Amino acid sequence: MKRSNLIKSSLPSSIAAAFAWFALSGGALAADAVKPSADKVARGKYLVTTSGCNDCHTPWKMGANGPEPDYSRMLSGHPEKMELPPAPQPVGPWIVAAAATNTAWSGPWGVSFTANLTPDPETGLGKWTLRNFVDTIRTGRHMGRGRPVLPPMPIPMYKNFTDEDLEAIYSYLRTIPPVKNAVPEPLPPAIAPTASKQ
Over the stretch 108-157, which tens digit does the pLDDT of each residue have? Predict the structure, then answer.
């Protein structure tokens, strides 16, 4: 009898602890705990392929016919060991410049580097929940609450994905090989020398 009372009295605190963990963890969605279906992963692969994710998040290399994606580093973002010269200043109507790898972009926002979308737990999306991923796309902010996601990421277009589309993309990204690659933080825009003299 005493044991059953102990179980009854500890049950509400266990439930409360579970809810607290859920709230503090960012509210992981059910998809994080369930293995996605092959159809969902295939749909995600299709969306990643047709939405141009490889165009920027997979480093490019020079091939026989010009620049092409380096699939040995698929979706791993800007190479961490790549040294770049200072970003060029915009000329005339041109406002954007891209590195030869297509993973570093310079414009009025500064210099942005494409993120590592692989499931590497330290440098990629390995620790992200579905909720983190969806919130990032919906809000245009890193993990749904951090710094803004910078150009050329087409957040205005990607916000139109359905929840099912985003879940499929997330599911597919969890299945690709993890690549350890710590992408640099974005660089703020340079202050023009004439601005400091005014």
Answer: 889 999 999 999 999 999 999 999 999 999 999 998 888 999 999 999 99
Contacts for 193 with CB less than 8 Å, ≥ 6 apart: none
Whole-model pTM: value is 0.78
Q: Please name the helix (run of DSSP H) or strand (run of DSSP E) that holds residue 111, with its range, or none.
A: strand 110-113
Chain Cα centroid distance, residue 70: 19
Give the other-Cβ count within 10 Å of 48's Cβ: 20
DSSP assignment string, 36-105: PPHHHHHHHHHHHHHTTHHHHHSPEEEETTEEEE-GGGTT--S-TT---PPPPPP-TT---EE-TTS-EE
**What is the H or E stretch that residue 113 is in?**
strand 110-113
What does DSSP say about strands 104-107 and 97-98: parallel, antiparallel, or unpaired? antiparallel
Taking the C-alpha atoms of residue 106 and residue 73, their distance in angstroms, rounded to an integer, is 22
Report the Cα 120 to chain-centroid distance in Å: 12
Task: State whether residue 107 is helix, strand or coil.
Answer: strand
